[in-house]
Automatic annotation (TrEMBL):
<dbReference type="GO" id="GO:0003690">
    <property type="term" value="F:double-stranded DNA binding"/>
</dbReference>
<dbReference type="GO" id="GO:0003727">
    <property type="term" value="F:single-stranded RNA binding"/>
</dbReference>
<dbReference type="InterPro" id="IPR007358">
    <property type="entry name" value="Nucleoid_associated_NdpA"/>
</dbReference>
<dbReference type="GO" id="GO:0043590">
    <property type="term" value="C:bacterial nucleoid"/>
</dbReference>
<feature type="region of interest" description="Disordered">
    <location>
        <begin position="60"/>
        <end position="86"/>
    </location>
</feature>
<dbReference type="Pfam" id="PF04245">
    <property type="entry name" value="NA37"/>
</dbReference>
<protein>
    <submittedName>
        <fullName>Nucleoid-associated protein YejK</fullName>
    </submittedName>
</protein>
<keyword id="KW-0963">Cytoplasm</keyword>
<comment type="similarity">
    <text>Belongs to the YejK family.</text>
</comment>
Amino acid sequence: MPILQACAHRLDKRSDEQPATLTPGEAMTDTAMAESLLATFTSSFHGKPKAWGHFREADAQPGDVASGNETEDADDGNPETPSTTSRFAFELERYRRGEINFTDFTRQTTESLVPLIDGHLSIGGHWWFVHSRQGEAEYLTLTLLHQRDGYGFDADLNVVPVQQLNLGQLMLAARIDLTQWQRGQSRQYITYVQDRGNKKLVEAFREWLGCQEGVNAGAETRTLLKAFSDYVESEDLPEDASREKTEALIDYANGQAKRGEPITLDELSELVDETQPKAFYDYIRNQDYGLAAEIPPDKRTLQQFKRFAGRASGVSISFDSHLLGNSIEYDDERDRLIIKQVPGQLKDQIKQRKG
């Protein structure tokens, strides 16, 4: 992932009572080590709970021309956040138009981040910006990196204290697909860490970005899994075939989540049925589940999706876990399993036997 631009600024904060101070940096001239750091950060970032969104409609959009008042404010060296946009989105658009360089863009937006740090965090860190390219797409990564104390050996093999970046602690981090943003065809080009233990911090960060949630990854993933289960039932597939297709879906979805990529319905449909690569895709469209062509995978939802299975006294039963409580119920007192929607193939066999 070649780095086009990178810049870090230090935010020092000694305690809750003391305000954060900013020590600005300059754009990096040597990005060799930064590329290694970015790769490690990206791996950690993809493993965190995340949300997806887009800039608010009122925010600066690629190609928009700022109003006269906004231009005057920006040119006087002390730009104020326009009432119709976030400071971050406004400055990002200026950078993309070539009106300011990368160092100024990152410094000005970091200055506007100081109140957020003061209001929600007791420690500071290094606020790192990276403009990179992956294939034909360009990305902007931004994150607050904290340091932690550790130990190491010096040249004389003595144990010495060292500091290192704590990439496992990512409270503030986002990745913006600049290419999707410019094309204007997506509402999930901003991905940001969603720390469920600090909702106020997440909300403040999202507000600072000027971002609004574009898609609920958990809900979308649940809908996709429901559509898959309905499809398997409609096909009256044997148990082995059903299990094989379920494993293919989960493996693909988990792989996409690990890479930080969306689930693409076209690709998934081909994996589900290689002989009829469009069958699952067409089924979703015909049943109108309201799913987009690309879905951000939610790892927690995927982990909960499994099949219950059991065999006893000549009876073999298996079903997707999310069906429990819906089309399948378990009566604990009577030890009964109630199936509300009997598979058509099984129903036909029973009717033939009774006849």
